[in-house]
Automatic annotation (TrEMBL):
The lineage of its organism: Eukaryota, Metazoa, Ecdysozoa, Arthropoda, Chelicerata. This is Uncharacterized protein LOC113794952. The keyword Membrane applies. It comes from Dermatophagoides pteronyssinus. It comes from the Eukaryota. Keywords: Membrane, Transmembrane, Transmembrane helix.
Length: 411
């Protein structure tokens, strides 16, 4: 992340602090009694629609103070989560291992892949994915300016010789367009032992995440943001037209805070997924090596095989311990607190949205607004929990090989 934007990040942090303080003020106000709340709502273009002030006034019914208090408390927690995510992502020390390993497997790896593309090759990943998906056996017969024509010829034969799944064919096709020796020399700094295949899969992941981010942004803006603005300005037009300048400022403020929330959640999602992809790919590769050398029970006393087993086991221990160290300390530095705050802050808000969606009458616009927000929220939280589950499985699946390792007397 560009440190030149630090002043703008601080400005966003101040905006979020003001918004959090504002909803905390609503909490205090809701506990001061109905008369105080009724006297305040006509002058606040956010509190009036939030507490349904004009609906109760027109119907001659008292304000539901319990509902007002719960809504204020939940929104305060929600803005505290956005404030905390802003601090974690943009204002913490980026020299922590959590940020260095994320930069290593995402930006640095993708930049090195782009640098390794052979000069003169007009490579478009989107077109290549479509080509690999629909034209299974139609690949370029010649690749010019290659540093190793023999290597590229071998890759092309691999495509045609055996039936492969879509991902394998895409990886081989991407290899045809890069200087493999140059890409291999450009090692990562934190994970210097990452293999070529894993690194190309990480590059594909970066491109895929970009597409998902664009889709999710369009989905949320087209549902929650647009419908929320229409509902808000319709309310202002009917009840508070005399305060329209303050309503515009409030709307811009809420929209920008919503954008910050979506951006930060998207970054959380990207960070979780790119870490998961790397750890799972590397652990699967290590476990395949263990299965290959320890899977033969008939040659337990073969000296050459035992020497190979010892080398593979030592390599496994070094890499497993290093990845465990990175995972544990990145969690202690950043992610444990971030995930805890995210779950504690967002679950009550999701319950509030579901309650309004199921037990209250809502127009079609309101339902789309609630559904768009819930889909986005659920997708992010589900992904984070899934990441933790898969990481736990990947780091412990080697235990199936422990009995044979003990039989072989591997130190």
């Amino acid at each position: 992340m560009d440190t030149n934007n630090r002043q703008w990040w601080l400005f966003e942090f101040i905006i979020l602090t003001i918004q959090t303080g504002r909803f905390l003020f609503y909490v205090i106000l809701s506990f001061m009694g109905e008369s105080v709340l009724r006297s305040y709502c006509p002058y606040d273009t956010t509190a009036a629609p939030l507490f349904h002030y004009f609906n109760h006034q027109n119907n001659g019914t008292p304000l539901n103070l319990t509902d007002c208090r719960l809504t204020s408390i939940i929104l305060t927690f929600f803005f505290f989560f956005i404030l905390h995510s802003q601090y974690i992502i943009f204002l913490t020390d980026h020299n922590f291992i959590a940020w260095r390993l994320l930069f290593d497997v995402s930006n640095r790896n993708y930049d090195q892949y782009r640098v390794s593309i052979i000069n003169g090759q007009n490579m478009n990943i989107s077109k290549m994915i479509i080509k690999t998906l629909f034209y299974r056996n139609k690949f370029n017969k010649t690749i010019s300016n290659s540093s190793s024509k023999m290597m590229h010829n071998v890759l092309k034969k691999m495509i045609r010789k055996n039936e492969k799944n879509f991902l394998d064919k895409l990886i081989i096709q991407l290899m045809l367009y890069i200087d493999l020796y140059k890409f291999e020399k450009l090692r990562l700094k934190v994970f210097s032992y990452a293999g070529l295949k894993q690194r190309i899969e990480l590059a594909i992941t970066m491109f895929t995440l970009h597409c998902i981010d664009v889709f999710m942004m369009i989905l949320v803006i087209s549902t929650t943001f647009n419908l929320g603005c229409l509902k808000y300005f319709n309310f202002i037009h009917i009840h508070m037209m005399n305060l329209w300048p303050f309503a515009i400022i409030d709307c811009i403020n809420h929209l920008y805070c919503g954008y910050i929330f979506i951006r930060n959640c998207t970054l959380y999602f990207n960070f979780s997924l790119i870490s998961l992809i790397y750890y799972v790919l590397q652990m699967n590769s290590l476990n395949r090596k263990l299965n290959q050398v320890f899977g033969n029970h008939r040659n337990l006393m073969n000296s050459q095989l035992n020497y190979l087993r010892q080398l593979i086991w030592q390599q496994f221990q070094r890499q497993h311990q290093h990845m465990t160290h990175c995972l544990m300390y990145s969690g202690l530095d950043i992610w444990n607190n971030a995930y805890f705050i995210a779950i504690i802050s967002n679950i009550p808000f999701n319950i509030l949205c579901i309650y309004n969606l199921i037990f209250r009458y809502n127009s079609l616009n309101n339902r789309f607004m609630y559904l768009g927000f819930l889909i986005f929220q659920t997708f992010i939280i589900f992904t984070i929990v899934l990441v933790a589950t898969l990481l736990n499985f990947s780091f412990h699946q080697f235990k199936q090989q422990l009995p044979i390792i003990q039989l072989c007397n591997i130190p």
